[in-house]
Amino acid sequence: MTVAEGRRERIRRTSSGGPREDVLGWSRAVLLPDGLAPVSGRTSVVDGEPAREGDPDEQTRTAFRAALDPLAERGLGAEGGVRTRRYLSQARDREAAGRAHHEPSDAVRPAASMIIVSGFTDPRLVVEVEAYRGAAR
Questions:
Q1: In sequence order, which residues have a C-beta less than 8 Å from that of residue 25 and are 6 or more positions away?
Q2: How much is the pTM?
Q3: Over the range 72-94, which residues count as b (16 or more CB within 10 Å of their CB) and which as e?
Q4: Strand 81-88 to strand 111-116: parallel, antiparallel, or no bridges (unpaired)?
Q5: Can you give the pLDDT of all 137 residues of the chain as single tens digits?
Q6: 98 phi and psi, to 5 degrees?
C-alpha cells in the first residue's frame, strides 16, 4: 500500500442519501485524517422544498443546520468551525444572512466570506452556505 492509499483509507465521507451525490460524484462532507472537515454547499431545501421562499434569514439558518448536521453525525460540533462562506443571490439580503450566521458562529468567529452570485438552480433559493471544521488537536 502506498502512502496515498493509506491516507485515502482514513478519509471518511458522509452522504445525505440524496440521488444527486451518486449521479454527480460528490459527498456531503469529508472528514480528513487530521480532523479538517469541509462540508459541501448547503441550501435550505427540506423534503424537496425551500424553507420560506425568498426569506434570507430563515434560509441561512436552515442551510447552516443542514451544513452542521453531517459534522454532528461524526461527533464534531460547531465549536471547531474555522471557515464559512455564504452565497447570496441578492446583495440586499446581506444583513439578514449576516445575523443568521451570527447564531451558530459567534462563539468561534470563523473566517467568513459573503459572496453575491447571479442565482441558484432553484429561483426560490436566495442563500447557500459552506462550512469547514478545523483540525482536531
A1: none
A2: 0.82
A3: eeeebebebbeebbbbbbeeebe
A4: parallel
A5: 444 555 556 888 888 777 778 888 888 889 888 888 899 999 998 888 899 888 999 999 999 888 888 788 777 777 777 888 999 999 999 999 999 888 777 777 888 899 999 999 899 999 999 988 876 54
A6: -65, -45
